[in-house]
Amino acid sequence: MKQRFSSLDVKAIAHELSTSLVSLRVSNIYDLSSKILLFKFAKPEVKKQLLIESGFRCHLTDFARTTAAAPSVFVQKLRKALKTRRVTAISQIGTDRIIEFQFSDGLYRLYLEFFAGGNVILTDKELKIITLLRNVPEGEGQEPQRAGLTYSLENRMNYGGVPALTRERVRDALQTTIQKAAAAAAKGKKPTKKPGDELRRGLATTITELPPILVDHAMRVTGFDSTIQPSTVLENEVLLDNLLQSLGEALKVVQEVTNSDTCKGYILAKTKPGFGNEPPDGTDGDQQKKDNLLYEDFHPFLPRQFEEDPSYTVLTFDNFNKTVDEFFSSLEGQKLESRLTEREATAKRKLEATKAEHAKRIEGLEAAQLLNIRKANAIEANVERVQEAMDAVNGLIHQGMDWEDIGKLVERERRRNNPVASIIVPPLKLHENTITVLLGEAEEEEEEDEEENDASDTDSVSSDDSGYGGTEASARKARENRLAVDIDLSLSPYANAREYYGERKIAAVKAQKTIQQSETALKNAEQKIAAELKKGLKQEKPVLQPIRKQFWFEKFIWFISSDGYLVLGGKDAQQNEVLYRRYLKKGDVYVHADLHGAPSVVIKNSPSTPDAPIPPSTLSQAGSLAVCASSAWDSKAGMGAWWVNADQVSKSAPTGEFLGTGSFMIRGKKNFLPPAQLILGLGLMFRISEESKAKHVKHRLYDVPESLLSKKPPTAASGKASADTGEGANADDDESDSDDSAIDVEETAESRENPLQPTGQRDDDYESPERTEESPPIQGVSSLAISDEPSTSGAAEPTQTEITEVGDEEDEGEEIQQPATETDSAPLTTATSPAPESSGKSTPQPQKKGQQPKRGQRGKAKKIAAKYKDQDEEDRAAIEALIGATAGKQKAEAEAKAKAEREAQRAATLERRRAQHQRQQRETAEHEEVRKMMLEEGIETLDAEEAASLTPLDSLVGTPLPGDEILEVIAVCAPYSALGRCKYKVKMQPGAQKKGKAVKEILEAWKAASTKKGVVDEKSEDKEKMWPREVELFKALKPEEVINVVPVGKVRVMMSGAGGGGGGGGDSKGKGGSKGGNANRGKKR
């Protein structure tokens, strides 16, 4: 079985990685074991995982693996240097088995070595080693490697370039092969290569860019005999030309590997023993066929020698990365599965040993009871013999004979076939005042008496000796079939029998207690072994699972309502903005709550029928999500949300105002919902195959025939339009049955359009007609008008528009009523402008005309003029410089200049911000115009993937049906009423437990329930029980993935049991608060 890369494999992998990973950034680095690293690369909408096993392999992987709890020192250094760095180049070093990764244009370099023990080396741009996986000492042909030294590339294979494949090079390679063989023979070494393989091996070691398997393939393709000796080829020019042609064919294969971005990969496998080559029938035939194969080898080309071998099965893949990932991941999965199976088998063996020990103990007590009864019965059946043996021994003791002498005497009498001594079994236990006698049981005594009576007819034996006579063989046989019984010399035979009956009663009571406590002991043993198994399984890594590709809507808060509508909510202001700009389309409904932190929630309607109404239950569930995901969850004070149509949401702010990210303007009337309960649910949904979707029917309102849509109540927008336009709307409605009664019908439809809408009395209180009559509608809201015809007098109320700002700010929910005219909403301006700044020169202010000078001021001015009449400006400046009078003036000028520069910079900044704000307003206005046109025309701008993902919601089901092919499991958090069809669900309320701990407890409860007897339906037919595929999927769920789904911080889990339906019960009654609540699943936590 192939274990590590060849030089051609390294070339193919390096070429594919350069295509896939260049321009991606390192998001994180993990260590899976001491020699296996996991690199995660990412850029927007692209994520890759690179698996590196030092010395063996390096490839992209599609399987999720469990990382180490804490990074090693080596990984910490790699993270410090490479995290967030961009990959700029990936290449092979010459033709050696080394791959070079360059980060940030060569600022850091990572070298992966796939020969000998392998290594992972990080260097700087000057090839100075920063850190490495293992230190390498200096050896033959190997320079030392440790931190601080320089990593050498000069001695790598063909680092300066691959030399051309010429006749002279092939001749030199053959000559080198012959010399190595001669030197090995001179040293007396035994040839390690199989006969006929010298030429292929010799060329592979001298022409290093061609691995041996490729040389063998090229020889088979060109028909060259690979068993020819190198010396024969060297002497024959024709054979040399044919060999050169074969090597040229091998070079073509190498060029084909790197011609395209990806190259095909081939896995060579053999069928497992006991399985046929024919795949089983059914849809899972290919998967079962793969499970029955043992992978042997992989290559970036199909070797001719294996293609012609019928014992090998060839599996083809689109690229070499998938080939290597499938090969090694399959082997890794088999090892992990075998270790898990071994642990489970060990636990079962322990449990069976415990059960066998208890059964053996009970069996021993029952055997002791039976033995005591047999001994008592034997004493009663042989009272006379027992009494004789007791009298004989007691008489010798009373005579004062030594105990050893008594034993010798009994043994001597046994050899003489003394009938009394023959039933006494040595050694005597006189220190315990007991002896052991051999007694026949009642049935055996009767048979012996019959035999003795028959023998007395032929033999003349006295009646006193009957029962004791017979030959030695018959005596030995009788002794073997008799029962050894201990007799107390101080008691009578009947008293000895009573002692055995008493021991039998004691054993019976003990056995009864043992049986009663056996069930408890076995249950405790099962729990202990299960705990040990659970602890052991935690240490083992789970079986590999493919990485699930997330749906486009999973980046938001999402759920599928009980009516089958997709509901999306933003996790932050940025996502609220994305929801508005990309996903709020015609026919959708916008739901929000006037609470701090409440997300913007969008109910996606069917693109084909955007005018279909949204059911009240879906509106209520979306409102519950908006309230639960806000600050109301922590304060435990619920209130109602509201909803509007998509065309009532706008990003254009009134003049003089600015809307931040995630804030919107709501124009028109809000439809308030009843107060929502603060109850969420965590459930599991399963993605089924396309073939299984036909069994599930989604009860969506817009899936009914179009003929029934006319019977549905109109939407809020259509109802309001009908009421406002009056007869004008009737004229445009061609499908109405009667023009005369159209107004009445539409008014009643508006009144009972939705039970969750407010009543007419509340609408009157909410609107302000007086204000609307005083001011005309605001510019830009004219797009909300339904008809251009003037409304009839008295047929409808005056038109009124309400403008509300919605956002995530702290003052969220405060309504800003804007004046209805554009001039009133504009900011106030003044006619005065700021006075220009002074130049800094302190010039005297001119005296106003008609103002009289002060006393003495005129004479003083005359004297000064006469004194300085001959002095010009230059002289004045020179004199002021000499006396130091200009220092203050210069300082004032410098300060004035700096102030002017600051004012100029401030003015430039303000102008730049004003231009940016105007540009943003211009872009917003253009976006609003385009969006308004798209809403009117119903144009969709979703990506192809998003548009295709809107319809496969039917593949997500809460309860699979028998026969469904379950592909994946997806965790979802939604209002509990929306999870009615989910098989696995748990209720959550506001509490003090962190959501991370709560999610882990829920998953552990489901896993524990799956181990109970009778909970899992192995045939996957009972919908009320767990199915093996479901258990396999939710056991592979990572708590981190599920935690990110829950939109709240702290919860209280309400779980009434995890069996069957997955623990989705209601509130369970129970005592206890925080104490013991986590241990008892049926209590509130």
What would you note in describing this structure?
The protein has 1085 residues and is α+β, with helices and mostly antiparallel strands. Helices cover 42% and strands 16% of the residues. The protein contains 33 helices and 31 strands. The longest helix is centred in the N-terminal third of the chain and has 62 residues, at 320-381. The model is unreliable at 279-285, 455-470, 699-802, 808-849, 946-950 and 1058-1085 (pLDDT under 50).
Topology, please?
Layout: H1 7-21, E1 25-31, E2 36-43, E3 46-53, E4 57-60, E5 63-64, H2 73-82, E6 87-92, E7 98-103, E8 108-113, E9 119-124, E10 129-132, H3 167-186, H4 198-206, H5 212-222, H6 230-235, H7 237-257, E11 265-271, H8 285-291, E12 293-299, H9 304-307, E13 313-317, H10 320-381, H11 383-398, H12 403-415, H13 419-422, E14 424-429, E15 434-439, H14 442-458, H15 472-481, E16 483-488, H16 493-539, E17 545-546, E18 557-560, E19 566-569, H17 573-583, E20 589-592, E21 601-604, H18 616-628, H19 632-635, E22 640-645, E23 649-650, E24 664-667, E25 671-675, E26 680-688, H20 706-709, H21 716-725, H22 727-732, H23 742-751, H24 760-766, H25 769-774, E27 803-806, H26 822-825, H27 857-867, H28 873-883, H29 887-937, H30 944-950, E28 956-957, E29 966-975, E30 985-994, H31 995-1010, H32 1028-1035, H33 1039-1043, E31 1050-1054
Antiparallel strand pairs: 1-2, 2-3, 3-4, 5-17, 6-7, 7-8, 8-9, 9-10, 11-12, 11-13, 14-15, 15-16, 18-19, 19-21, 20-21, 20-22, 22-25, 23-24, 24-27, 26-28, 26-29, 26-30, 30-31
Helix pairs in contact: 3-4, 5-7, 10-16, 21-23
